[in-house]
């Protein structure tokens, strides 16, 4: 990685219509004499799973990083991680467990600014104790009639929130689903310019079977012979500038689709996947980072479930089938 003046935390940066992105220093400097385990070239830590993509992006699995080393690397950068979560309608019920578990496991030791997007500010639990350096803001959003619309509108709302204020306040942003719970560490090992997580239900299948949008009338269409991994939209993130470009592109494509009366099969997740076929993520999170409580049975490769979808009664929390 080249080191230039622009790589410092304070330095100037590229512009998007007047927005100045906060820059991150990517240099790895360890100040303390950490007794980390020696990395042995001839003894790979994981031989059961892919740990690097064909375009040389790491895939984060338990065992591939040393939490002490990675924490030490990032601590000195004084980073703020904006974290968006949408709790519309009855989804506010999920907020307490989401936030309480995030306080135990999510980016512990870093500054986190949660942005809770909701139509019901009064239903956001007020008595959750946040750690030092951690904040919560409520962003009032309209409620759309269908859950599909609520879901896909997130791209637009995240884009707008980045442009309105988040760009000034954070170095990284993570966009998370609320009907989830943290069970294990999700920390600075997950930070990167463009980060996405591999869907827990499809990683063993050939790409022709991924649930991409296939209809060519949609801007999210992916041909049978393309695609790397199928990503779940429940967690994605990265540097503000990169996530802004992603949300803006997806929002534009969602609008084009809407104008011709098409809605992609998995709404904004289909557009996210299209985007990531064209713009490869710089870091991938293994399905440890986006597990599903409904997934039972053996998965030897999953040594640790970190973040997982809770089992919900869809009829009860959604507005429509
Ligand atoms: C489901 C998940 C959806 C979507 C879908 C893709 O398991 O609940 O949100 O990701 O897989 O097929
Ligand atoms: Mn969800």
From TrEMBL:
> Per the record, what is one GO cellular component?
vesicle
Give the cofactor binding note: Binds 1 Mn(2+) ion per subunit.
Q: Where in the cell is the protein located?
A: Membrane
Protein origin, superkingdom: Eukaryota
Where, by residue number, does UDP-N-acetyl-alpha-D-galactosamine bind? 86-88, 91, 177-179
> Which N-terminal stretch is annotated as signal sequence?
none
Which residues bind an alpha-L-fucosyl-(1->2)-beta-D-galactosyl derivative per the record? 199, 269, 292
Q: Name one GO biological process term.
A: carbohydrate metabolic process
**What CDD domains does this protein map onto?**
Glyco_transf_6 (cd02515)
Q: Name one Pfam family in it.
A: Glyco_transf_6
Q: How does it sit in the membrane?
A: Single-pass type II membrane protein
Query: GO molecular-function annotation terms?
Result: hexosyltransferase activity; metal ion binding
Q: Binding of Mn(2+): at which residues?
A: 177, 179
Active-site residue numbers: 269
Q: Which keywords annotate this record?
A: Glycosyltransferase, Manganese, Membrane, Metal-binding, Signal-anchor, Transferase, Transmembrane, Transmembrane helix
Q: Which cofactor does it need?
A: Mn(2+)
Q: Which family does it belong to?
A: Belongs to the glycosyltransferase 6 family.
The name on file for this protein is Globoside alpha-1,3-N-acetylgalactosaminyltransferase 1-like
């Amino acid at each position: 990685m080249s080191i230039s003046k622009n790589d410092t935390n304070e330095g100037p940066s590229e512009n998007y219509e007047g927005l100045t992105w906060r820059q991150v220093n990517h240099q790895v400097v360890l100040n303390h004499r950490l007794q980390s385990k020696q990395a042995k070239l001839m003894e790979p830590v994981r031989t059961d799973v892919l740990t690097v993509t064909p375009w040389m992006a790491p895939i984060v699995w338990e065992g591939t990083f040393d939490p002490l080393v990675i924490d030490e690397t990032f601590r000195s950068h004084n980073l703020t991680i904006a974290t968006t979560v949408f709790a519309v309608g009855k989804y506010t019920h999920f907020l307490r467990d989401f936030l309480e578990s995030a306080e135990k496991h999510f980016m512990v030791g870093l500054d986190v600014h949660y942005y809770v997007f909701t139509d019901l500010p009064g239903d956001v639990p007020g008595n959750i104790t946040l750690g030092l350096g951690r904040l919560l803001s409520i962003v009032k959003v309209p409620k759309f009639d269908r859950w599909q619309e609520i879901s896909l509108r997130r791209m637009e709302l995240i884009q707008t929130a980045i442009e309105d204020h988040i760009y000034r306040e954070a170095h990284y942003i993570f966009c998370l689903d609320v009907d989830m719970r943290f069970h294990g560490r999700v920390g600075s090992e997950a930070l990167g310019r463009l980060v996405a997580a591999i869907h827990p239900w499809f990683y063993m299948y050939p790409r022709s079977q991924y649930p991409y949008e296939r209809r060519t009338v949609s801007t999210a269409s992916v041909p049978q012979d393309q695609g790397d991994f199928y990503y779940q939209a429940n967690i994605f993130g990265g540097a503000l500038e990169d996530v802004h470009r992603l949300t803006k592109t997806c929002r534009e494509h969602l609008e084009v689709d809407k104008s011709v009366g098409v809605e992609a099969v998995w709404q904004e997740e289909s557009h996210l996947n299209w985007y990531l076929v064209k713009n490869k993520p710089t870091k991938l999170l293994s399905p440890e980072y986006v597990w599903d409580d409904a997934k039972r049975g053996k998965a030897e490769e999953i040594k640790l479930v970190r973040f997982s979808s809770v089992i919900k009664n869809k009829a009860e929390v959604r507005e429509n089938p």
